[in-house]
Amino acid sequence: MARSRRGLEILTLLVLLASALAACAPASEAPGEAMLADAPTGVPGEAPAEYQDLTNPLSGDPQAIAAGSEAYAALCSQCHGATGAGDGQAGESLVPGPTDFTRQQQMAALSDGYLFWRISEGGAFDPFNSLMPAWGTLLNEREIWELVSYIRSLSS
Length: 156
Prior knowledge:
- It contains eight helices and no strands.
- By secondary structure, the protein is mainly alpha-helical.
- Helix 4 (62-75) packs across helix 8 and helix 7 crosses helix 8.
- It is globular.
C-alpha cells in the first residue's frame, strides 16, 4: 500500500508538471466538448478489441467507489475537476480539454471497457492526442475498475 501511495504521489507531481508545461497552449472553448461533439456517436475513438467487451466487476460496490474516489482525487481531479466537470485548474489550458464526467447522456454512451481503456492507455495517440497519462502503468486492474466505478458515480 505504501508503494502504491508513493507512486500516486509521484505521478500526481508529474501530471501537475505536464499541466504547467501545457499552460502555453491556447485554451479550448469548453473542456472536452469539442472532441465529444466531433465524434459521430459522441464517443471519440473506438476501444481496441481486447477492451470492448469488458464490464466492471465492481459496478455499484460502495467500497470500490470510495477507493476510486481516493485515486481520482490524487490522479484526476487536477485536470477533470473536483466534481468531474472537466474544470480542474491544471486542465484549463489543455487542448483538448479534460472530459466532463458529469454529463449523464455522454457518460452513458461510454462502455466500461472504453473507460478502462482510456484510463489504462491514456491519451497520447490518435484521435485524442492529449496529455492524459496512461495510468495502467501505475494502477492495477482492480484499481482501474475502482476508478471507473467512481467516475460513473459522478454522472448519476
